Design the sequence.
């Protein structure tokens, strides 16, 4: 018996189905079902929501989400070896769990989910940042999701919630802070995983705002911020000089000193500069 349902413990599931974690897929399995249930609770009230999960592996978080009352869970799993174990979960929760064998970077889940939609995942390390960026900068807002509850390397989690002036502040900080609220809700040591990663992990909870804090075109802002932080130690008049011949004047118009560095610039100023450059 496990702590949250009548299915076998995860170590037994992994042994039965031969599910050794693969580094090539960014897999690190979280086996403590009490921890997976805690992560599921961090996603908020699930009873009236559809939940999208990426990379469920043997299904630890999946079971937490279902046990916490998720209306329905749709899991996207690239590793076909995990499917038999996940089908056992589907049988235990009839009508509430579906798994799709696909690459999350290529599969669009929106047509198979009903609002409200929450995303919860122990994201594979090799695709986590790319997926988060896609969820944070769609052309239309509000997005299809209400909240994200995601596990990352602690370093990435700190970048998501960082404020201007800190070393962790960067592109992810701007994208997250512009149209959502983000906070770290849990830390996990390497020993919680199999195999243990070389870094600590953290769970970030992100809630979408109804409207962005400041006016800006998403792609233009994302491109500007990427360029600004690509050479973060340079003054902005140098790192952004390729965007306009009179970049110093445009920086000043946005309230930014040409000698400022990206890590000191507030989100509002980046949005102003993005719109000045775009209109020109």
Sequence:
């Amino acid at each position: 018996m496990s702590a949250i349902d009548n299915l076998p413990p995860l170590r037994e599931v992994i042994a039965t189905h031969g599910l050794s974690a693969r580094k090539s897929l960014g897999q690190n399995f979280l086996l403590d079902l009490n921890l997976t249930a805690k992560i599921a609770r961090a996603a908020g009230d699930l009873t009236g929501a559809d939940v999208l999960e990426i990379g469920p592996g043997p299904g630890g978080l999946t079971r937490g989400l279902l046990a916490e009352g998720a209306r329905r869970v749709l899991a996207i799993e690239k590793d076909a070896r995990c499917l038999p174990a996940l089908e056992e979960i589907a049988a235990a929760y009839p009508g509430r769990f579906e798994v799709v064998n696909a690459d999350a970077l290529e599969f669009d889940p929106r047509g198979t989910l009903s609002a409200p939609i929450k995303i919860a995942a122990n994201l594979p390390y090799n695709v986590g940042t790319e997926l988060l960026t896609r969820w944070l900068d769609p052309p239309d807002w509000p997005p299809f999701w209400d909240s994200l509850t995601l596990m990352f390397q602690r370093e990435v989690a700190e970048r998501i919630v960082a404020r201007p002036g800190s070393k962790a502040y960067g592109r992810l900080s701007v994208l997250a802070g512009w149209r959502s609220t983000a906070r770290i809700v849990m830390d996990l040591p390497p020993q919680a995983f199999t195999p243990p990663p070389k870094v600590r992990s953290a769970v970030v909870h992100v809630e979408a705002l109804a409207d962005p804090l400041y006016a800006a075109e998403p792609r233009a802002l994302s491109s500007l911020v990427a360029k600004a932080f690509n050479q973060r130690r340079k003054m902005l008049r140098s790192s952004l000089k390729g965007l306009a011949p009179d970049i110093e004047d445009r920086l000043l118009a946005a309230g930014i000193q040409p000698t400022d560095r990206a890590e000191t610039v507030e989100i509002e100023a980046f949005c102003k500069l993005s719109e000045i450059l775009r209109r020109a």
